[in-house]
Design goal:
Keywords: ATP-binding, Cytoplasm, Kinase, Nucleotide-binding, Transferase. One of its GO terms (molecular function) is GMP kinase activity. Its EC number is 2.7.4.8. This protein is of the alpha/beta class. It is built from 7 helices and 9 strands. Helix content is about 40%, strand content about 20%. The protein starts with 5 loop residues before the first strand and ends with a helix.
Length: about 190
């Protein structure tokens, strides 16, 4: 895989974006996978600089002011997430494919600034499976789960905004579909 192209992976909460991205990182280290910055606290097992760059509000504000983010958004009305610009631009300049794992708001911003990127919608096999995954990870309060599920309904409705849809039935199969897309991508 040597194509220098940006791939944007987005989809509803709990669809498995992070799991697919982690598997991609492990199986295909040649793909630059952006690590987002966030103002939310780490979940159990998350490592700063690997899963996210965990920053405070003042640092995030400075990143915005200094134009260090390709995109940023407030997600679920609570915490901010953003994609640091420097690593993505360096990877593409070096001829590496790059992938962003971001939310719908971020994908829309990137579409405006980098319209040549390939936008991939990761979709759950069913609504029931999405709910099962969200509840099963046990990292949110009941109130936060309800807020995330309400947001997920809106996010699922945005599928038509994307170039390609991959159904995340099984992580390695989703990764292989994404890799096939990266290898064969000269369009859309």
């Amino acid at each position: 895989m040597t194509r220098s192209r940006l791939f944007v992976l987005a989809g509803p909460t709990a669809v498995g974006k992070g799991t697919v991205a982690a598997a991609m990182r492990e199986q295909h280290p040649e793909v630059y996978l952006s690590v987002s910055a966030t103002t939310r606290p780490p979940r159990p097992g998350e490592v700063d600089g690997v899963h996210y760059h965990f920053v405070d509000d003042a640092t995030f504000d400075a990143m915005i002011a200094d134009d260090e983010l390709l995109e940023w958004a407030t997600v679920h009305g609570v915490h901010r997430y953003g994609t640091p610009r420097a690593g993505v631009e360096a990877a593409l300049a070096a001829g590496r494919p790059a992938m962003l794992e971001i939310d719908l708001q971020g994908a829309r911003q990137v579409r405006r600034t980098m319209p040549d990127a390939v936008f991939v919608f990761l979709k759950p096999p069913s609504w029931e499976e999405l709910v099962r995954r969200l509840v099963g990870r046990g990292t949110e309060t009941e109130e936060e789960r309800e807020r995330r599920l309400a947001t997920a309904k809106l996010e699922l409705a945005a599928e038509s905004e994307f170039d390609v849809t991959i159904i995340n039935r099984e992580v390695n199969a989703a990764v292989q579909e994404l890799v096939a897309l990266m290898i064969g991508s000269s369009a859309p």
